[in-house]
Amino acid sequence: MQKYWKEVVKITEFSVQKYMRSLRQPFCPGCGLFSLTHAFLKAVYELGYENLSKFVFCSGIGCSSWIPSPYFMADSIHTLHGRSIPVATSIKLLRPDLNVVVFGGDGDIVGIGLNHFIHAARRNTDILVIMGNNMVYGMTGGQVAPTTPLKTRTTTTPYGSFEYPLDAAKLAAVAGASYSARWTTAHPKELKEALKKAIGLDGFRFIEVITQCPTAFGRKAGFRNVGEMLKWFKDSAVLVQQADKMDQEELEGKIVIGEFVERKRATLVENVYAIMKEAQRNGK
Amino acid sequence: MHEDEEKTYFWSGNEACAEAAIIAGCRFFAGYPISPANEIAELMAKKLPKANGIFMQMEDELASIGAVMGASWCGVKAMTATSGPGFSLMQETIGWGFMTETPCVIVDVQRLGPGTGQATKCGQGDVMQARWGTHSDYMAIVLSPNSVQETFELTIRAFNLSEKYRTPVILLTDETIAHVRERITVPKKERIEIIDRKKPTPKDRRFFGLEDIAPMPAVGEGFNVAVTASTHNEYGIRFTADPLIHRRLVENINNKIRKNASEIEDVERYNVEDCQVGVVSYGCTSRGVYEAIKEVEKRGVKIGHIRLKTLWPFPEKAVRDLAKNSEKIIVPEMNLGQIFYEVKRVACNVDVVPVNKIGGGELITPEEIFAKILEGGSQDN
What we know:
The complex is a heterodimer.
Chain A: H1 2-13, H2 32-46, E1 55-59, E2 75-78, H3 84-94, E3 99-105, H4 106-112, H5 114-123, E4 128-133, H6 168-175, E5 179-184, H7 188-200, E6 205-210, H8 214-221, H9 226-236, E7 237-239, H10 240-243, H11 248-251, E8 255-262, H12 268-281
Parallel strand pairs in A: 1-2, 1-3, 3-4, 4-6, 5-6, 7-8
Antiparallel strand pairs in A: 5-8
Chain B: E1 7-12, H1 13-24, E2 26-31, H2 38-47, E3 54-57, H3 61-72, E4 77-82, H4 84-100, E5 104-112, E6 118-122, H5 127-132, E7 141-143, H6 148-165, E8 168-174, H7 175-179, E9 181-186, E10 226-228, H8 243-258, H9 261-264, E11 267-270, E12 277-281, H10 286-298, E13 303-308, E14 310-312, H11 316-325, E15 328-333, H12 339-346, E16 351-356, H13 366-374
Parallel strand pairs in B: 2-3, 2-4, 4-5, 5-8, 7-8, 12-13, 12-15, 15-16
Antiparallel strand pairs in B: 1-9, 5-6, 7-14, 11-13
């Protein structure tokens, strides 16, 4: 009984309200982005941040980009479609003391903004990129995305998609990220732990969150409700260590989750300021 | 470089631009290689680290202008330099900068297009792109120097105007002015006016779309500023459907430039009050006009000249003054007619005659302008 009360007290101590300007996030009922918002703010809370004054949020265009802007009680810069990472880059360079966090969807980060994503990972830019991957362009009504699984029906692939999806978490790892992980909204605890870890690390950190979009993805892809989608995430999830031992055929239709990379490498901020110091020391 | 004494140098236009930017207080530059703007980036890469500034060569122009906007929201003066094709790529973000009222300077060293055109040759084809490049209703401030000395002066003015009016400002130079080397005098420190943006007081909460120019906070200052180029109210909160909020916001940010147009407009006037023939010129093309005028005057023809240092907002009053007395106005430019139509719109009861030349970076010669001035009779335009 005593233990139970401890749990309750602990839960009530945390509220997303603590960090938000408004609770009226504009997402559809059943949207996975509510879970992502919760997981992120819970991670911030558990890390001991009383408010978001040490954070700056950059986002692009799309549903995921509306997570921080303007709902978080923080500095938030809502940029153009695909351009959140360049804006975040210069902010981090000029204000290395702030935690710069990018929120974006799969279309924003690895569709129109893919170039910036790869280069930020290459530079090991000190930003945390959180990508809500709903495998579709949700805000515009459910068009095929670079992350849509093969043969999935969307509004622009009415007979099924004929393209292979992009593996963003793996790409970040290969391009030079310090940390890259993928979880789903059906794994809220693991997601929260990954976010906590990523906020504490340096360099380019990427967390891909497979999230359900019942409105734009579910209706065309044949899911009747949110529960079915979450069940799909749970059932098809395979840990990356396991996936390494599986062949192409076995991996078909699976969602590989877990940590793809964690490495230590000098970051962009460290490199830029080291070179600056050297330039200043060498006189003219 | 910036000393307490007046000093003379022998610089190219691009060099003068970079040196002036540092003096104006620019501490962030992001760019992507493109001819004929490269020397600006190269010099900034050399100078900025020593001035505690940051230079970034980004992966493309979209990223460059994005990084410039981010820097500006850190309270840092920022600049990028490019040419026609890169300028086209930046247009969407320039619109973002206008809507969010983000001060920054974009240098467009014009070259010949459309498309890749003649990448290293001079042209003046971006005049309309500089004005109307991004979508929807906005007003651009565009400055056009015609010498190395003026590139220096107008670069500083570009920063000052952008800080004062909280808006992106475009410095429209061209390949000729960028690469010509001339003697230039850098004035004493105290003789250069530097304007910095208005910062908010701790109590301020209204940062956007005010009738006057709103104060601008930076990130990390505790204002919890919400920046968005979606329609927003004065607190930065998004309203994507409310007609009144959109009308008020967009009208206010246009008006802050429109109402101050007379202060922004800057022209060089020559003999405007007493002339039979007028010339309206800008940028490198104006260099030939001076010589043509000398020759024409030897023949007893009275000639007036307006040289536009500000292209946008278009200096209507100056051109109207010129049109009062002259029978015809010659507009030489290295494109197939852009400022010509503006002059025609303003000087509607005067014969407006274009002199156009494109290709190979060939300048319009004084002889060509001379011939057009002396040509009699009405023109079919």
